[in-house]
Each structure stands twice: as structure tokens, then as C-alpha cells.
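USER: If only I could read C-alpha cells as easily as an amino acid sequence. It would mean a lot if you studied the pair and described how this chain folds. Here is the record:
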Amino acid sequence: MTDIRSYEQTGEAGFGDYVALLKPRVMSLVVFTAMVGLLVAPVQVHPMVAFASILFIALGGGASGALNMWWDADIDRVMRRTRGRPVPAGKVAPEEALGLGLALAGIAVVMLALAANFVAAGLLAFTIFFYAVVYTMWLKRSTPQNIVIGGAAGAFPPMIGWAVATGGVSLESVLMFAVIFMWTPPHFWALALFMNQDYTKAGVPMLTVTHGRRVTRNHILGYTLALAPVALGAGFTSIGGPVYLASSVVLNAIFLLGAWRIWRRDEADAEADGYQAEKRFFRVSLVYLFLHFAAFLAEAALRPYGLGGW
């Protein structure tokens, strides 16, 4: 592996390179799910407090991304999917990525504590630590369960949003966490099925690398089966309702069908068509999560009119 400290800048970094350090696509998921957690909570939040809180949660997500890119620059340089990132591409020095990540993390946590409350700020601090240290520095390179345990980092934002509004944690926020947590393994293992060569070259012990694609297909189906009752169960709480439940039934049926099709395929067929079913399942997984949280939001929007909730 290349020592990230030996990287030399090959060009002057632009504003877009520093934005890319923050993983804006991942940040958009963080912002959306945190916003949903805040808006579906039973306590109304002043619009300015809500805006500031979401901004600082987004900064915390960006800090996690920058710290991840700093630590993972060596393997990012090997993988085709990530070698264009600012640090391995030589646009941003590793120490700059580290400094930016630490600075944003400190600002985000302190300002969220001031704008909202210490519970929300504590959850944000733990999320950053979990993603940057527990997942990135430890789990990712040491165990095929990396994405299973590490997926908790991406599942915390709705809990943080809920805590901004309520100052605490509840069954509803835990279930929103659980939906993302259970969704993460099949989502990323589908990616690993058609990006396995990258993970093999980089020495990342994804399940496809350590146990093979057949075992990974089994796990995708198993986790998708386990995800369905969790997602459906959220529909019977105060944040659920008929709109959410109907949406969840349809979405889980589609997701289960996709997992079943992946499970039935052998490697010869998958390789022959360029892993099209696996790529399609990966794209559907993004829609699956977005529409579940959009349905939570729809229930909250309809509730004042007596149309949402139970």
C-alpha cells in the first residue's frame, strides 16, 4: 500500500475539490434523513433552529467524509471507483483533508449543542467518531462484517434530527435508525458484487472477497428478509400510518423480489450480462430508502388535516 504521507500534490485544488472531500452525495442522504427525523417528531421546532441544526448535521457528515478520505487515501488510489477523489488524485494534501475534517467536526458538534441541545450534539459527535474511527480506521480493513457494524454510522442522522426536536431518543427514532441499519448491508453488498475486483485489489475484506459471491448473495437475501418486518413495523408507530404502510408493503415486495433474483443467479450468468441485475438492485435500494423516509414525511404532512397517522 502507498503511504498517504508520501502523496504529493499534482495540481492546485479548486473549490470543487474541497466540496468533494465532504462526500456531497452521502451528505445529501444524511441531510434528508436527519430532516425527516426532525420534522416527524411530535415537537415543533422553530424554523431557524431547524435550519441551523440541519446545517450543522450536514457539516458533521462532511467532516466524517473528509476524515474518511484522509485515512483511506491509499486504498482509494487503488480502486477505480475512488481513485479520482481529491487526495489520491493529488489535488488536496492528506494533512489538509485531516485538518478540514477535524475543524468541521468541532464546529458542527459545538454549534449543534448551542443551536439545539446536548443530546443531539452528543449523538452527532458519536456518529462522527463511529464513522471515522470505528468503521474507517478499524472495521473496514479488518473484518467482512465491516459494513454491517459500520452501517450504524449512516443510520444515526434521523435519531439526531429527532433529538433536535425532542431532546431525547424514542422507539420511533430507534426504528428509523433500524430501517437504515438493516438496509445498509444488502445495499453495499450489491455494489460489492459488481465491484469485487476493486475491493480485492485494495485488500478490503468485503464479504465478496473473503467468502465469495455465493455467500454474499445468501446474505443479501437474508438481510432483505430481516429488513422487511422492521420497515413495516415502523408503520404501526406514531410516525407511521396508512400511506407509509401501503408504500412500505409495495417497496418491500419489490426489494424482496430483487434480492430473490440476485440469490437465484449463478456467477456465469451474472458475469455474462455484466451484473445487470445486481446493478439494478443497487439503484432500487437507493429509491427504496428515499421513498420510505418520504412516506414518513407524507404522514407528518397529512396529520394536521386528519389524513395521516392512525
